[in-house]
Design the sequence.
């Protein structure tokens, strides 16, 4: 019985993974990427939203670290995305906030 | 109004209100996903008729997982469609980790605990990540009671895993990974993160590491609800460094961002020896009004059951004086209840309860002084537990290219 459940999960995973390899209307990718502001107002809004999401997600376990270089931060945020509960959208805002 | 139409094997999903598009998504092979979900549901109902509560619970988790994947395909579309322009960010391998020197005094016996726990992160391309953490821990005690301190350094490989980020809602992990059971083992265990240095009494009930495969991910199911899931299968390993049991299990977590509250449920089923089940739940809350962290866990296994509850308050709530803003007061109360025939030697042999208080002072980012006092109350004897020490978190890029 449990093996059948695992089989179902693996097939589902393969299905969703296959979808990720094809282009979609939302231009969604699984890559580590930051939100890019177009205007100063948008940059401020992204910073505020990024800080809010940082405190809401990352601040649940640890204190805010000092900011790391962007390439380090991109690696660390990928690690934390896998390890913790942050969503893809949260990750992009947090990366933008931590590398501004 | 909603539409669902097909172009060959392609299904386009759109929801509109008047002329305003509310959601727009793309779903391929939707009939396959639907049929798989229906298949999982059929299995669950059969199990509820034929199996016990655990089977039904386990299968419910499986069903939730299936639905989560299915819904994520639909529900992710609006957010992604509205997301601003993005650009790729270059990555670099990173070495991070924690160091701690925390002497323990328990029942009059001093143990000098020294830990270094390096984490290595190697990103590969846009969607892959190799991550590993080892631990080197020396618990040095006085030889013959009064002699010099000495002891062996224990080495362990806590995880060495390859992650494939398949899409924004699914990550596939293979290798040795931290078992996704409750939250302490995965998120709060590192010495530079934990608020109290002594392990919770129920920590040994949370299988620390597993060897096998894990599927996990998260998505926003509603404006104020993020769901996160993890399902894993682990193989048996008798190697001392890579020890693991043959087991299957999973966890589902609901997080409410506006309230900063999280609740999660975990299950595990041993596929060897006693075929025992284990169950756990955890809760975390950080009110927006003041800097309080409230955490709690409960675990129930064949070797016993217990819980802990831990509030931690930053004194910046009282004053913004630097000395207070950097100070954190922690409390914890925990209880453990034994079960007859317990097979885990790392848990207390008798019912135990323990109140603890602690103080942390953050000198700077990553460097912290920590101390605590606890009183273990047990029919095997009461004991005081003191800790005092320092913790440090480090991180640096491997090679050039940090910027």
Sequence:
């Amino acid at each position: 019985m449990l093996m059948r459940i695992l089989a179902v999960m693996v097939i589902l995973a393969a299905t969703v993974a296959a979808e990720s390899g094809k282009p979609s209307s939302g231009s969604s990718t699984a890559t580590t990427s930051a939100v890019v502001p177009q205007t100063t107002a948008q940059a401020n809004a992204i910073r505020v939203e990024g800080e809010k999401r940082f405190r809401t997600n990352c601040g649940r376990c640890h204190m805010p670290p000092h900011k790391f270089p962007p390439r380090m931060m991109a690696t660390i945020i990928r690690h934390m995305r896998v390890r913790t509960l942050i969503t893809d959208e949260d990750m992009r805002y947090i990366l933008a906030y931590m590398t501004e | 109004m909603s539409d669902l139409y097909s172009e060959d094997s392609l299904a386009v999903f759109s929801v509109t209100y008047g002329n305003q598009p509310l959601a727009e998504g793309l779903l391929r092979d939707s009939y396959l996903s639907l049929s798989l979900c229906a298949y999982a549901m059929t299995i669950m109902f059969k199990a509820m008729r034929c199996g016990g509560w655990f089977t039904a619970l386990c299968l419910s988790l499986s069903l939730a997982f299936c639905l989560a994947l299915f819904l994520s395909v639909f529900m992710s579309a609006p957010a992604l469609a509205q997301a601003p322009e993005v650009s790729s960010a270059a990555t670099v391998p990173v070495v991070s980790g924690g160091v701690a020197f925390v002497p323990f005094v328990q029942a009059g016996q001093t143990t000098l605990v020294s830990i270094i726990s390096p984490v290595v992160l190697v990103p590969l391309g846009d969607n892959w990540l190799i991550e590993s953490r080892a631990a080197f821990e020396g618990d040095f005690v006085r030889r013959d009671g009064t002699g010099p301190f000495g002891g062996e350094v224990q080495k362990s490989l806590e995880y060495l895993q390859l992650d494939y980020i398949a899409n924004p809602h699914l990550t596939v992990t293979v290798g040795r990974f931290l078992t996704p059971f409750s939250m302490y083992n995965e998120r709060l265990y590192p010495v530079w993160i934990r608020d109290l240095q002594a392990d919770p009494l129920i920590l040994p009930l949370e299988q620390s590491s597993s060897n096998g495969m894990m599927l996990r991910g998260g998505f926003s199911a509603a404006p104020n609800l993020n769901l996160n899931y993890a399902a894993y299968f682990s193989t048996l390993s008798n190697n001392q460094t890579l020890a693991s049991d043959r087991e299957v299990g999973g966890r589902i977590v609901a997080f409410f961002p506006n309230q900063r509250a999280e609740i999660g449920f975990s299950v595990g089923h041993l596929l060897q020896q006693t075929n025992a089940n284990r169950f756990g739940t955890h809760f975390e809350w950080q009110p927006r009004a003041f800097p309080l962290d409230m955490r709690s866990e409960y675990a129930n296994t064949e070797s016993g059951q217990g819980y802990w509850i831990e509030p931690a308050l930053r004194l910046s709530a009282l004053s913004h004086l630097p000395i207070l803003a950097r100070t954190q007061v922690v409390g914890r109360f925990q209880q453990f209840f034994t079960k007859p025939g317990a097979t885990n030697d790392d848990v207390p042999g008798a019912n135990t309860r323990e109140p603890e208080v602690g103080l942390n002072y953050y000198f700077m980012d990553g460097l912290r002084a920590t101390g605590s006092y606890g009183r273990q109350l047990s029919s095997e004897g009461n004991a005081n537990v003191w800790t005092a020490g320092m913790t440090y978190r480090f991180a640096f890029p491997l090679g050039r290219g940090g910027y």
